[in-house]
């Protein structure tokens, strides 16, 4: 467990702590067929919670599991769970499925799929938090070699070794390549760069997680009049950038101050992006639909 003060929803109710609900013989524990998603509750809102719940169901299908909980029902379950915490809590919201029964070599797990949601207290990173990046010899796999069309637990040991390698070199995160050697993402987040006022981010090519926070930032920046280009990004592009920043559910937006020996200041676009994100997240009205946030404001 990464957080403190954990609660777990399992089989119809919220349980205190992190109960032992996965067995050694479960396919998910033994052979890695598990999927999860991560959302955040902080500052009184859970931005894009429904989108994260929808994605965990798509991830389950990609591993040939049958999702058993509607995304809208997950939001209701989370709402019940949040009532157990103070309004100023900062939580990581993690719905997950794992296969219980399946033939040993099968990805298709049959009819039994476990489902749980964990709520863990994890403080939001401070507003001036930044990180540093380095290269890694580990790459994002392609669809033919891994279930990169899912947010699957089995992808994360590869990301973990990227992260360990980077941290051992004294950096905060690893900037991983895709199969062709272009920039994909970091071990935990999507990457953006700014050059001469234009924002660039790797175009989804099926090898990295095109994150929900990434999509939200692209939309908010474009609405603010910033040109955002989804394209092939090379490591030299990153070195030549004026600004580099990361997006992900956990910390939302994190400016990067170094990529190996190239250094960057925290620039105006990263600052603006943070402002736009929280203005949107805390606003009463959804920018797309004009509807009250409702489901997301918990
Ligand atoms: N890439 C990876 C590998 C991740 O684990 C995450 C976090 N889920 C992201 C990108 C960011 O995705 P999102 O904005 O949907 O959280």
Automatic annotation (TrEMBL):
Pfam families to which the protein is assigned, alphabetical: Aminotran_4
Enzyme Commission number(s) of this protein: 2.6.1.42
Pathway: Amino-acid biosynthesis; L-valine biosynthesis; L-valine from pyruvate: step 4/4; Amino-acid biosynthesis; L-leucine biosynthesis; L-leucine from 3-methyl-2-oxobutanoate: step 4/4; Amino-acid biosynthesis; L-isoleucine biosynthesis; L-isoleucine from 2-oxobutanoate: step 4/4
GO MF annotation, one: L-isoleucine-2-oxoglutarate transaminase activity
Catalytic activity: L-isoleucine + 2-oxoglutarate = (S)-3-methyl-2-oxopentanoate + L-glutamate; L-valine + 2-oxoglutarate = 3-methyl-2-oxobutanoate + L-glutamate; L-leucine + 2-oxoglutarate = 4-methyl-2-oxopentanoate + L-glutamate
SUPFAM superfamilies, A to Z: D-aminoacid aminotransferase-like PLP-dependent enzymes (SSF56752)
Keyword Mitochondrion in annotation: no
Record key words, sorted: Amino-acid biosynthesis, Aminotransferase, Branched-chain amino acid biosynthesis, Pyridoxal phosphate, Transferase
UniProt KW Transferase keyword: yes
Entry cofactors: pyridoxal 5'-phosphate
Cellular component, GO, one term: cytosol
One example of a Gene Ontology biological process annotation: branched-chain amino acid biosynthetic process
Transmembrane segments: none
Record's function text: Acts on leucine, isoleucine and valine.
Family affiliation: Belongs to the class-IV pyridoxal-phosphate-dependent aminotransferase family.
Full protein name: Probable branched-chain-amino-acid aminotransferase
Organism: Palleronia marisminoris
